[in-house]
Amino acid sequence: MNIVLMGPPGAGKGTQAEKIKASYPIPHISTGDIFREAVANGTELGKQAKTYMDSGQLVPDEVTIGIVNERLTREDCQQGFLLDGFPRTTIQAEALDQGLAASGRKIEVAINISAPNEVLIERLSGRVSCKDCKKVYNLQYKPPAQAGICDVCGGQIIQRDDDRGDTVARRLEVYLEQTQPLLDYYRQKGLLYELEGNRDSIAVWADVQKILEKF
Ligand code: ADP
Ligand code: ZN
Questions:
Q1: DSSP state letters, 127-169
Q2: Looking at the CA of 69, which ligand is closest?
């Protein structure tokens, strides 16, 4: 099963990706996670990516495409994969299709989760996560039991640099300008499923499962 998961920041994409990962034995490829790990490790890629991420901009297509296409050639992706946060531009989507076609593969389903802008802003500005196990909390709706400490592992609670102030607004703009047009790309191919993300994550998950059952 070759899946693309899309949606503006804050729509609940990451939560659904975790659920898919737990239910289907396919690798989860998140470009955001790949970049954050590179930043944390201080690699050349990390240095390059950081300036874009901190200002809410997309990392240049040629960098991102190279990383994902390389990842998809590995053995563990041959029976399926979940792409989370990629593609984000039409150029990335075209490059993805070309890369997959070279090995006789294609995207089978694209799921987009969206929510009204006000909801996204509210969710993102309250979003924090555990530094160690990465569990996500929201300071308004789902705070950790003890302030600053992870319920699951006792790790330190931190805020993502790009969840601060202006960067949140910029990321939403970038989504509308560069990623929203991509929905047409998958719609025209008959691959697009659109879900409302302004609901309980359990309800969204029920819909995701209904879609994936068909494949
Ligand atoms: P979000 O919560 O905004 O959906 P991600 O964790 O997916 O964020 O990505 C964080 C940042 O990493 C993005 O704002 C962008 O700078 C960079 N990034 C992630 N995926 C891509 C991509 N496919 N193309 C370009 N940049 C990307
Ligand atoms: Zn934790």
A1: EEEETTT--EEETTTB--SBTTB-TTT-PBEE--GGGSHHHHH
A2: 1
85 pocket-lining for ligand 1 (C-beta < 6 Å):
yes
Residue carrying structure tokens 């789902």: 142
Instruction: Judge if the beta carbon of residue 50 lies within 6 A of ligand 1.
Output: no
| 134-168 pLDDT per residue, tens | 899 999 888 999 999 999 999 999 998 889 888 99
The pLDDT value recorded for residue 161 is 86
Average pLDDT of the segment spanning 16-41: 95
Tokens of 118: 């006000």
**In this predicted model, what pLDDT tens digit does every residue of 35-68 receive, in sequence order?**
999 999 999 999 999 999 999 999 999 999 999 9
Whether residue 197 has its Cβ less than 6 Å from ligand 1: no
Do 179 and 6 meet the contact criterion of CB atoms below 8 Å apart? yes
* pLDDT value at 215 more than 90: no
Q: Supply φ then ψ for residue 157, to 5 degrees.
A: -90, 130
Ligand nearest, relative to CA of residue 61: 1
- Looking at the annotation, which residues are catalytic? 13, 88, 127, 160, 171
For the entire predicted model, the pTM comes to 0.90
By most ligand atoms within 8 Å of CB, the mutation choice from 16, 51, 53, 174 for ligand 1 is 53
Atom of ligand 1 nearest to the CA of 92: 23
Task: Give 134 Cα–ligand 2 centroid separation in angstroms.
Answer: 6
Domains of the chain with bracketed CATH? 2-124+164-212 (3.40.50.300)
